Amino acid sequence: MKDISFGQYYPVQSPIHRLDPRIKLLAVIMYIVVIFFIQKFIGFAVILLFLLTVIFMSRVPFFKVLRSIKAVIFLVIFTVIMSVLFYSSKNAAPLWQWKFIKIYKSGLLNAARMGLRLIFLVMGPAVLTLTTTPVELTDGLESLLKPLALIKLPIHELAIIMSIALRLIPTLSEETEKIMNAQKARCADFDTGNIFKRAKALIPVLIPLFVSSFRRADELADAMDSRCYRGAKGRTRMRVLKLKFRDFVAAFVMLLLLFVILVLRYNWFGWAFIGLLI
Questions:
Q1: Fewer beta carbons below 10 Å: N end or C end of the chain?
Q2: Do the beta carbons of residue 254 and residue 31 sit within 8 Å?
Q3: Cβ pair 213, 164 in contact under 8 A
């Protein structure tokens, strides 16, 4: 669990680190939208090339970004298996059949698309958290949600809550690992038995983890209260967010990526070979 990189910040100087957090948040939202437009593999190849370029420019080790997949690897495997086993096609013969289980070529392709989509959905936001501090995320999120303050929504408080929750992901992972190691030292067994025995064995881990989480929340509340934190009222900013030329370049690149994916998806210019590739 300590290898999970989601929610961690990798401190290094790079063009991606210096981008405005608002641009990075909007870019991640657009990146997620773009992924759902992709239906064929040339689109995934374009996304992979874009993602590798961003990781290279961010100077974050590729394997550190790749570790973010560990949190959803079970979901990816489960989704792929279900897509293969329960995909049906009336117009094609199955590649393999055993009783009621039929595996089709289109089912294998669909499972590959689902798996790649889930992997890319995790890696993109992981790059965001690795290249943006929690304070920057809070400022950027609060700035983007500022129009909602007109309908009396507590924007600042919501941004603080999301930032704290994101920051505590690696902390809770480390706390869980410490508790599990302490239980293993007392001869606890988490690796053998069926799924029900393993779930029951986790109870001695979950109870102290909940207690530790509530204690940490109380300590954080006391620390914020002792520093006279009263929400957004009367607060000023030490660092005012301002868009720079590199931010407009990043926004243009994301719009260009969206345009390329839409061209590949809908074949706007009537290129016949694109239909074969995607």
A1: N
A2: yes
A3: no
